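Hi team, as promised in this morning's meeting, here are the two structures we talked about. I've kept the exact order from the run log so nobody has to guess. The first one is mostly here for context; it's the second one we should focus on when we meet again. Sequence first, then the predicted structure tokens.
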Amino acid sequence: MRIEQASKDDLPAVADVFKACVRDMLDRGIDQWDESYPNPEISRQDCADGSLFVARNDQGGVMGCLTMDENQAAEYAEVPWRHEGKVLMLHRLAVHPDYQRQGAARELMAFAEMYGRDRGYDAIRLDAYSGNHRAIPFYPKIGYEKRGEVHFTRREKPYYCFEKSLH
């Protein structure tokens, strides 16, 4: 697997990853994403901003994706974060169901941490939907600490906020 910044040519494959993940999550009773989010416009903007990254299989196909930037939701202001300084935010981590449970998410997260360290970030933050019973235990297993929760109008259940120092 290799991870690299996405190009415009990757956007159809990224859309396919999101569609497959939405179907899989809904089949599992996870109402985190739907047909309106994440959407192609968000991916186009992430790509244009240089913040969208893709994980490729040995044949070059897109297995998954992740967005990394400094954009924190306004709701994060109330979370008791532990780390100050330059913070890298992770958004929309997705691995196509055909590649799940094979370490792709772990590799994407390791890439994000290396990327953050190499660029002088002090910590990584992210949120995960509390109704996603597969994602919630994943982050503590790889060293992320739950720091609080936020609510977004689109969902009934809260999102748990996680943070990890890069030092």
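And here is the second protein, the one for discussion:
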Amino acid sequence: MRLRTVDTRTATALAATMALGTALLTACGGDSSASAGGLTTVTLGTGGNIFDLPLKVADANGYFRKQGLKIKYVTLTAATGPSALQAGSVQFLHDSPTGFVTALSKGLPEIALGADGLGNPLGLVVSKKFAQDHDLTASTPAADVAKALADSTAGASSANTKAEAGIFLKSHGVDPTRLKWVSLPSPVADKAALNNHEIDWFVTSEPLPLQIADSGDGVVVATPLTVPEWDATHSGYSQFVVAQKSYATGHADIAGKFVTAVQQGTAYMRTHLADKQDKTVLAVAQKALPGVPAKVLESSLEQVDWPAEASMDAATWNTTTAFIDAIGALPDGSKVTTSDWTNKYLP
């Protein structure tokens, strides 16, 4: 689940400040009372990553326009998203579970309106040298991978990815505290350290691990397809759209139109992603994530469970919060109740 989510969406303080500044500058333009060409304009905060694809597909296919909406995008971080939402700079926020529960723990009146992603599209990539020295390939059994990592140097650019790697290691009897960990500022820094042989491996969200493998600089040896603890069944929601409770209540019509279009975009991805003749999803992905090879994008998108419907349920929320707790990211006493999410705006 994207809890991954949050992993690669961590930004530096400067980036956070700049993003928030951008959001605040668009406050007037993003006001849902404004209209353009007969369409109501709403501003949506996104993370600028693979999880945004259902929204971009919905836009590309005209689903928002059919609902009478025009979407204005603002790229935000886990740090700036809640502030922009509370300030009214954005009407909707594409959020991760860890970001959402953190906001709730602070008493922010947010409500989740619909889920458009399940599972954690994580990749564990080892250096080419480490793979050769330990006879590791993309098809090596997960237990053998974990055993090889027992005496290694790992990179970690966030507490979440380190914890998610730890879940994998512990599931195969390897104590993550016995490894050497190198703290790095970002997944890009992880990649540089891997290339410079400063670390043997790291975990982050796709498509970066598969990009490294595609360029021949490393080997992806663990994914949600081989690590059940990272898949949708075990980790729950990875991404959803949220709004202020007061906004959703006061603009119920717009909230309903918005989540209807999001659901249509997600359903389209689910049914058409495997259709190699339909290039819509891939074209949108290439535009949203320029520079990433097509085959890498396709493989990355296949690691997310894109739901046919955006509706949510208590059981999946329990799974989600249990996963957040397992990686040590659940604030003390925090929980997600039925007052924090709703399906009432879905068709």
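Starting points for discussion:
The chain is about 45% helix and 20% strand.
Residues 1-30 have pLDDT under 50 and may be disordered.
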